Amino acid sequence: MSRHAAVFDVDGTLVDTNHLHAVCWWEALRQAGHRVSMTSVHGAIGLGSADLLEHLLGQDRDRDEDSAISAGHKALYGTWHERLTPFDGARDLLRRLHADGWPVVLATSASGPELTALRAAIDADEAISETASADDVDTGKPAPDPVQHALELVGAQAQGSVFVGDSVWDMRAGRRAGVLPVAVLSGGVCRAELEEAGAREVYTDTADLLRSLDGSAFGRR
């Protein structure tokens, strides 16, 4: 069994997509007749589709609408697939960790063509050992399942492993999975919220983490 793994969220962490997702969800909700503030939508980014809709519309919503709203978001977001852009340092960070002997695993709510587009944007497939997608688990973040599944894919233990994400949902999932949660601010969530959710270290973005790698959780392992 590997001693540790480097697990990464993708949206808002490695690829600059959170605000695109927020706009697409806002528009899909608007088309379905729901008025939800952009701030509320942005705060829900990082949840899987079903959990996001429950977070925004509540348990008493008309669940028959869920599929159509999710499909609307997927169609709107799909128009951006070819223009997705990684954050500075994201590609080099994954390659550096891979070279240092860390199994790198992506843990994301994306799947299918969306996941393909994200991996194409990152352009570091040679450094990525495995991907734990939304199709692989029954319960998404903030449940620990996606992170635990990511560890299982490379035979890693939670102790000594690190999960890098940008949302409170990521931090809660990492904490519950028993790994060390590390946050980046690139998803638009403030430092205080991330630390309250469990972040042990906070960096501006992947470029900042790469520059600080030797003194980070990765450098101390």
UniProtKB/TrEMBL annotation:
Coiled coil: none annotated. PANTHER family: BLL8046 PROTEIN, PHOSPHOGLYCOLATE PHOSPHATASE. The keyword Hydrolase applies. InterPro entries: HAD-like_hydrolase_sf, HAD-like_sf, HAD-SF_hydro_IA, HAD_sf, PGP-like_dom2. The keyword Hydrolase applies. Gene3D superfamilies: HAD superfamily/HAD-like, Putative phosphatase, domain 2. One of its GO terms (cellular component) is cytosol. Keywords: Hydrolase. This is HAD family hydrolase. One of its GO terms (biological process) is DNA repair. Pfam families: Hydrolase. GO terms for molecular function: phosphoglycolate phosphatase activity.
